[in-house]
Write a structure and sequence with these properties.
Blueprint lengths: L5 H17 L10 E2 L11 E2 L2 E2 L1 E2 L2 E4 L2 E4 L5 H17 L1 H5 L6 H18 L2 E10 L2 E9 L3
Parallel strand pairs: 1-4
Antiparallel strand pairs: 2-3, 5-6, 7-8
Helix pairs in contact: 2-4
């Protein structure tokens, strides 16, 4: 949910909590955080008697959003994940003389470039057969 004022956000949260109650759904208060962007003080929003925790960084769909509108955390995270992907593929792909440059570029695009551009989390690389002997592929995983 997004709102321009703290009061509007509280109204939205109240409406959401009421709708959940009417449908018999439960809001996980431990997993529900609040963030104010480009504000002087963190908003104070509550659901019932519970005040939601105000956070400065929030990860949503693999991307990190910061309260100060900076991209530093997001860029550092993506660079770190890309470095990890490159290191995992060093012996199985980059140093493998049996793989063609074309195959190495496809692995780069699938595992490294997608991580850098879209922030996908990489799981362990698993072997798969290709025309160029054994090719490593990376599996993307969801939120951990």
């Amino acid at each position: 949910m997004t709102a321009h004022t703290e009061e509007d956000l509280q109204r939205l949260v109240n409406s959401f909590a009421q709708a959940c109650e009417e449908f018999g759904l439960t809001i996980s208060l431990k997993k529900t955080d609040i963030m104010g962007q480009d504000v002087n003080s963190a908003p104070s929003i509550s659901i019932g008697d519970h005040t939601l925790e105000a956070v400065t960084n929030f990860t949503y769909l693999g991307s990190t959003i910061s309260s100060n509108l900076s991209l530093d955390v997001e860029l550092n995270t993506r660079i770190g994940k890309t470095t990890t992907a490159m290191a995992r593929l060093a012996s199985r792909v980059w140093d493998n003389s049996m793989l063609t440059t074309n195959t190495k570029m496809k692995v780069y695009q699938a595992c490294v470039l997608s991580t850098l551009l879209y922030g996908a989390k990489l799981g362990p690389c698993t072997p798969a057969k290709s025309a160029d002997s054994t090719l490593s592929t990376c599996a993307a995983s969801g939120r951990s």
